[in-house]
Design a protein that fits this description.
2 domains, Aspartate Aminotransferase, domain 2, alpha/beta, seven-stranded mixed beta sheet, 372 residues
Length: 372
């Protein structure tokens, strides 16, 4: 029955993308082998963090790097680093930021649920307008610890460019921290944001990079990366509960090594071929509009098939189709996108989390629900 069948669970064909609620991505055999090998020995965890960080920084073209328990943990550690630095007394006082800089300036376009990680360590969000004057005024506050900048496909409102924000913040001696959790591919984004002025950038390790889902990493300034490390496990700090085990650190390192060496052009061809098969399978449904589409923004640039239709004409909503697919056999997950995210309701079929041939299974299942 398999490991999940033994627990009474049914596995899922995942066309919804690298979502946390579906387990992220599938690790490559080399990653699993590295994790198994790491589990056979003991190691000093602080030394492992330092060694893995040096190697990841080399691969990503950054001053320094630190492995953490996912991108959200990375946000928390970046915030703690900007507040407490490497001062052990301040580190142990968090999340009570008495006598510390603790405010994080953020533009409206960058407000997300993930900023809770900043509040978790004692930070306070300060929203400003997306204009230079508002940012200049906010940066004059001596309690500001950093500017928080977020990049994601669902953040489509206008915002000041990262280069502008970084130049202004650095003029006041204030760092800029970036949540770029899912902003690869392209692989160049691993070093793009630091080059554009970010002091710290958090990435997920369990999405396109295909490391353990519970991992992430922070890239950036060596002094602030050292502060991230000291605010993290195994130290007595706010990051103590955000533990990354030795197997996960080694697995993530292997995944990043493999990712930067991949033939990314071949990946794109594979994804486009799968999207084309979905479109071809569904093209004879007259009331359905299906097209190849890329996500908004500069990251997670993976094509997907987008489906829309007039729900009154077809007689079934996108939401009901999504629910029916998850109740079917095999169970299939697709992404439901809402008007609040992109201005319309649509279903997206993502190719990068599918095994070869599963795109046809997904398309045929959708066709069976709509061709009635």
């Amino acid at each position: 029955m398999g490991i999940y069948g033994d627990l009474g669970l049914e596995t899922i064909i995942n066309a919804a993308g690298t979502l946390t609620r579906l387990g992220g991505s599938l690790m490559l055999p080399e990653v699993l082998e590295a994790m198994t090998a790491a589990g056979r020995e003991f190691v000093d965890m602080d030394e492992l963090h330092l060694a893995a960080g040096r190697r990841i920084a080399e691969l990503a073209g950054a001053e320094a790097a630190h492995v953490c328990a996912g991108a959200s943990a990375g946000i928390a550690l970046m915030a703690a680093a900007c507040m407490a630095g490497t001062d052990l007394d301040k580190i142990r006082r968090l999340p009570e930021p008495t006598d510390m800089r603790h405010k994080f300036v953020v533009q409206p376009a960058h407000r997300t649920a993930y900023e809770q990680s900043i509040r978790l360590v004692g930070g306070e969000m300060v929203e400003i307008g997306a204009d230079v004057r508002a940012l200049q005024t906010a940066l004059a506050d001596e309690a500001v610890a950093a500017v928080f900048y977020t990049l994601a496909w669902f953040l489509t409102a206008d915002a000041l460019p990262l280069t502008t924000v970084a130049e202004m913040a650095h003029g006041q001696g204030i760092p800029v921290i970036v949540d770029a959790a899912a902003e690869v591919p392209p692989v160049e984004n691993l070093w793009r944001f630091v080059k554009e002025g970010a002091d710290l950038v958090a990435f997920s390790g369990g999405k396109a990079i295909r490391g353990p889902q519970s991992t992430g990493f922070v890239l950036g300034r060596a002094d602030l990366i050292d502060a991230c490390r000291l605010n993290d496990n195994p130290h007595s700090a706010v990051g103590r509960p955000m533990k990354v085990c030795k197997e996960e650190i080694v697995g993530l390192l292997k995944a990043i090594e493999l990712y930067v060496q991949r033939d990314h052009n071949q990946d794109s061809l594979t994804w486009d071929r799968r999207v084309a098969r979905v479109i071809e399978t569904l093209s004879d449904l007259e009331a359905i509009q299906v097209r190849r589409q890329m996500p908004y923004g500069i990251g997670q640039l993976i094509p997907h098939a987008a489906l829309t239709w007039d729900e009154q004409t077809v007689g079934i909503s996108c939401g009901k189709v999504v629910d029916a697919l998850m109740r079917g056999r095999p169970r299939i997950a697709v992404q439901l996108v809402t008007p609040a995210q992109v201005g319309r309701t649509e279903i997206r079929i993502h190719p990068h989390t599918l095994r070869e041939g599963e795109e046809v299974v997904v398309a045929e299942a959708i066709k069976g629900l709509l061709a009635v």
